[in-house]
Write a structure and sequence with these properties.
Length: 297
């Protein structure tokens, strides 16, 4: 039977709709408008595209967007001073510093200077620790989006075997933690994993987050498994030009899987939707108001 295609684009539109509803209610009942500050250092073209898209979608759901574009050679002291101002600004409920940063800036130091309550990326060491101990935290956006789609598809994830391929701080590790918190049996596989095909073949849920185009073939996938493809890789087409592919070979995986996310149109759109969700969550927590249901872990 053909795999169910999990439509991340439609799912993200639903999440944005829920965020917009909550924002409208906040405005009406409390006069509060959630605000998201995005900081971009330098002119990396991919980062510029992401930041523009974040700003546009923030405004579309009715929130305030504050963009701070800094010169590529901005000093660490100047960047930290800006973050300090944003931490103290009551109109700013979420702060995101676009990564990667230029190499002269210490990413860990910068991220850990953000107020954890405003850390809508969920990268601050306090949020990492809270997530790791199953406490209320800000949850990284891409893994949160994957979790929402998995819960929607499966209902309960309890007892399922999940294999996360990739151990990044942004996706692999928090994803594994979220799945563990939902009572999956979790394996984190990576570049040194022995017999990856055998490990992946045991999974009811496969999360591919390695950044290697089409590295997971369909014959690794257990029939009926759910495949969540986090990869977004641009490859050359034989006839010229480029196309986007995931970390999984879509055609062969879709032939075996029970459900699969496409690339593009799968996990990708969920990341910004979850960033907006995290911002409204952060705003509600800051004001001691009821958080939106279903928009966080
Ligand atoms: N660069 C690529 N993905 C992300 C993300 O999720 N957050 C931030 N801050 N930077 C990124």
């Amino acid at each position: 039977m053909a795999a169910t295609v999990i439509d991340g684009k439609a799912f993200a539109a639903r999440v944005r709709g829920q965020v917009a509803e909550h924002v409208a209610r906040l405005k009406e009942e409390s006069g509060i408008i959630p605000g998201l500050a995005v900081v971009l250092v330098g002119e990396d073209p991919a980062s510029q595209v992401y930041v523009r898209s974040k700003g546009k979608q923030t405004v579309e759901v009715g929130m305030n967007s504050y963009e701070h574009k800094l010169d590529v050679d901005t000093s660490e002291a100047d960047l930290l001073a800006l973050i300090d101002r944003l931490n103290k600004d009551a109109d700013v409920h979420g702060i995101l510093v676009q990564l990667p940063l230029p190499s002269h800036l210490n990413e860990d130091m910068v991220i850990n200077s953000i107020d954890p309550a405003k850390d809508v990326d969920g990268f601050h060491i306090s949020n990492v620790g809270l997530l790791g101990t199953g406490q209320k935290s800000m949850v990284p956006c891409t893994p949160l989006g994957c979790l929402m789609m998995l819960r929607d598809h499966h209902g309960s994830l309890s007892g399922l075997n999940a294999v996360v391929i990739g151990r990044s701080n942004i996706v692999g590790k928090p994803m594994a933690q979220l799945l563990l918190n939902d009572s999956c049996t979790v394996t984190i596989a990576h570049s040194r994993t022995k017999d990856l095909a055998e490990v992946v073949g045991r999974a009811d849920i496969v999360i591919a987050a390695v950044g290697r185009p089409e590295m997971v073939p369909g014959d690794w996938i257990k029939p009926g498994a759910t495949v969540i493809d986090v990869g977004i890789n641009r490859i050359d087409k034989p006839e010229g030009g480029t196309r986007l592919v995931g970390d999984c070979d879509y055609a062969s995986c879709a032939a075996v899987a029970g459900a699969i996310t496409p690339v593009p149109g799968g996990v990708g759109p969920m990341t910004i939707a979850c960033l907006l969700a995290n911002t409204v969550t952060a705003c509600c927590r800051a004001h001691g108001l009821i958080e939106p249901q279903g928009l966080t872990a």
